[in-house]
Amino acid sequence: LFKGEGLDKKPTVERLGEVFVELDGLLIERFGVVAGAIIGNELISMTADYLRDKKEYIKTFEESDSADKNGEIYKFIFTDSGYDGPGDKDVKQILLTAYSAVANSQVAFKYLYMNAMKAFTGDEPEELKILDLFGALVATQHIDYKIMLFEDGFANVYGIQTALSLLAFEFANAYNHKVGFAKCKNCGRYFVLNGRTDAVYCSYPAPDHEGKTCRDIGAQVTRSNKEKNDVATGEYRKLYMRLKMQARRHPKDKQLEETLDTLVTGGKEWRGKLESGAVTTEEFLAWLKGFEEK
Question: How far is CA 97 from the centre of its chain?
Answer without folding.
Answer: 27
